[in-house]
Write a structure and sequence with these properties.
3 helices, mainly alpha
């Protein structure tokens, strides 16, 4: 979707760049109002889709985190159950506790890695979305300013 917004912004840029300069207008030009407004409307329509995609990514991240927590809890319970079954000798008990701790530590480490990876992915996606939105807003602001300058003449 970001590619579509980039394309629309490019089209708006080209429309402004290719517009006729006004004589002694100090860089002002004539832009086809319907064309410029149509492109801005298309950009506006595309933005909510990108925001929805970002929400979907965040929900997916939350599902991954929840799944990792459930998996960690399941591994922890399995390790604890296994430790309870081997209570007969001191040496076996010590080994079982060590193994349970290793499994718990491994599960917690994995859950942290999955969380960190999901957070990085969401942060990167939101950063890219923010950049696209900022570019669209900048181009829209420029087009409005140009339009205001032209329309007041």
């Amino acid at each position: 979707m970001a590619a579509r917004i980039d394309e629309l912004i490019g089209m708006l840029y080209d429309a402004i760049n290719d517009a006729w300069n006004l004589p002694m207008g100090g860089g002002k030009c004539l832009v086809d109002k319907d064309e410029a407004l149509g492109l801005i409307d298309e950009i506006r329509e595309s933005l909510p889709q990108d925001l929805e995609q970002a929400r979907t990514i965040v929900e997916g991240r939350n599902e991954i985190i929840d799944q990792a927590k459930r998996e960690a809890e399941s591994i922890k319970r399995a390790a604890e159950e296994r430790a309870r079954q081997i209570v007969s000798e001191n040496e076996i008990i010590i080994m079982a506790k060590q193994k349970a701790n290793e499994i718990t530590t491994l599960a917690e480490t994995r859950a942290k890695e999955v969380t960190r990876t999901a957070n990085d992915y969401v942060d990167d996606s939101l950063r890219r979305l923010e950049t696209v939105i900022e570019q669209a807003m900048t181009e829209t602001h420029r087009a409005r300013e140009d339009f205001k300058r032209i329309s007041t003449k």
